[in-house]
Design brief:
The structure is a homodimer of 333-residue chains. The first copy, chain A, folds into 2 domains: 176 residues, Rossmann fold (3-Layer(aba) Sandwich), CATH 3.40.50; 137 residues, Dihydroxyacetone kinase, domain 2 (Hypothetical Protein Tm841, Chain: A,domain 3, 2-Layer Sandwich). In chain A, 62% of the residues are buried. Helices cover 32% and strands 23% of the residues of chain A. In chain A, strands 1-2-4-3-5-6 form a 6-stranded mixed β-sheet, with helices on both faces. In chain A, strands 9-8-7-12-10-11 form a 6-stranded mixed β-sheet. Chain A is an alpha/beta fold and 333 residues long. The radius of gyration of chain A is 19 Å and the shape is globular. The model of chain A has no long low-confidence stretch (mean pLDDT 97). The interface between A and B is large, with 62 and 62 residues.
């Protein structure tokens, strides 16, 4: 294992100290338990937005804390759910009196722990809404999931709901909006290589010299099938067809197209993916009116990509365009 | 070779088409020859900023075209210098009557071709200033370079000079500023893995299972030495010591610390690098007052990082903070 780390046991702790030092004006990092919080939290009268999950997917979620996006993120150990006490501390830190939305990716540990944290927070008088993201069309049930996994749509939900919370929409409105984003978002990913969890010291799975895995999960969970590597136009078709057929997306739809890098794939390849995706969608009469291209929900150094499509309306578009000021996603601010 | 590409011969062309489709409001992409230009170029009365170099370093340079940064970028084939005609077309496209600065990384091909383009542009009546960036302290002379290589400081020079040009500083002022940034910036990089140029189909160099290369160039050019992989605090010391000693940076200096990912290294590791760099500099009384962390000048899917330090004064700081709106770097706009 070759990584830019010290002791594998200290990876999350030291990375969080890096985040704290680098972005001191924007976030503060609490330890014991680990929580990344907006520097100005709680914002009075604003719905608080909390997400979290295992580390190793950076910039998600800690890099999405800041005005216009999350109020707090709970980072677990690498590929390991955060604990209920992290989520409770985060929830209390961001409650500005208008309640808190938990955005939860559909993994069994995250679901259980966020449920427990929500119960504890409610006992302390904080109104909580929980929204589960389960947008991955690759497989039904998986290694850590009952139902579909939560992947790329999470990033879009955090941005869009963050903007809505800034507008002082109510707890119920922000939660309903988050459910709407989830209902209108679909994703699928693929891997060219595995990744290595530092504490494990060896690759999560093995792929042959000329193999790729279609439908991979963000923790290296098995996907739909392994195939011989193919030209990217075929790869895009393998990912985009099940996405489009699932919702379904139809001619005349406007979408946000999110081409995500898994962490080890260079940007030049992601732009080729985008080029092919644009051709694919144009052929079906689907218009890309917004896009996001880069590594935003990653799997350590895995090479590969995922595609997320989100059906847009005017409200979602305006919320997407609203200013955001986080370490990982920033514009207009 | 496993990559998200079609034909290796089409990588640059198709990636540029992806850029054109994704960022149509911000840039336009000219083909034959390939140039990425600000959508609103030329801006009358503003000094034009042109850079360029081989592809494979994305988002540099095409991703840095837009208000507050470059007016145009000339992408060569992967790790191959662009041609004089690309540079001439770019220069003519962005000349708003106030002259054009060429920001040139110190590689023999780039130097020769930008010199030729400058001569041709002057013949057409355009005032040109050329500034060479040679900030890499790793080695004197190299595979493609006489003198020092140009690396991370290029990104900072493009941002800072872009802001100065927006303020309508003169050609001489912007060029002098660029020379000042180069004089105050120092970099060094390292690699854990090689990268594979698509057209070559095999890794540029070989590193052993437990080897790293200290002082690597952004095309995989040999560095100072190969060593057994070490904890990141030692790696940071190996990179930061020659950087600090070279200028030298001294106690009381304020710096911009740029921790750059080589393309295949996950963000979580870059934040640990930043954490260690902060400790290293604190120990010498050097204050990090600005930072940039992420993959900005890359070497395809190479795993590794580079560190760039830029000594700041109030003018450089204000120019760094000024709004920028490019695909690869964006804030305040």
């Amino acid at each position: 294992m070759k990584k830019l780390i010290n002791d594998p046991a200290d990876v999350v702790k030291e990375a969080l100290q890096g985040v704290a030092l680098a972005h001191a004006g924007r976030v503060r990092v609490m330890t014991d338990p680990n929580v990344v919080v907006r520097a100005d939290a709680p914002v009075a009268g604003k719905v608080g937005l909390v997400s979290g999950g295992g580390s190793g997917h950076e910039p998600m979620h800690g890099g999405f804390v800041g005005p216009g996006m999350l109020d707090a993120a709970c980072p677990g150990e690498v590929f390991t759910s955060p604990t209920p006490d992290q989520m409770l501390v985060a929830t209390k830190a961001v409650d500005g009196g208008a309640g808190v939305v938990h955005i939860v990716k559909n993994y069994t540990g995250d679901i259980l722990n966020f449920e427990m944290a929500a119960d504890l927070a409610r006992e302390e008088g904080i109104a909580i809404e929980s929204v589960v993201i389960d947008d991955d069309v690759a497989v039904q049930d998986s290694l850590y999931t009952a139902g579909r996994r939560g992947v790329g749509t999470t990033v879009l939900a955090e941005k869009i709901c963050g903007a809505a919370a800034e507008q002082r929409r109510s707890l119920a409105e922000v939660a309903d909006l988050c459910r709407k984003v989830n209902a209108n978002g679909r994703s699928m990913g693929m891997a060219l290589t595995s990744c290595t969890v530092p504490a494990a010291g060896k690759p999560t799975f093995e792929l042959g010299e000329m193999e790729m895995e279609i439908g991979i999960g963000i923790h290296g969970e098995p996907g739909r099938e392994r195939k011989v590597v193919a030209p990217v136009h075929e790869v895009v078709e393998m990912l985009a067809t099940p996405i489009v057929d699932d919702l379904p997306f139809a001619a005349g739809d406007r979408v946000l197209a999110f081409v995500n890098g898994m962490g080890g794939t260079p940007l030049i390849e992601l732009y080729i993916v985008y080029y092919e995706l644009h051709k694919f969608l144009s052929g079906r009469g689907i218009e890309i009116s917004r896009n996001l291209i880069g590594p935003y929900i990653t799997s350590l150094e895995m090479q590969g990509c995922s595609i997320t499509l989100l059906k847009l309306d005017d409200d979602l578009t305006a919320l997407w365009d609203a200013p955001v000021n986080t370490p990982g996603l920033r514009w207009g601010a």
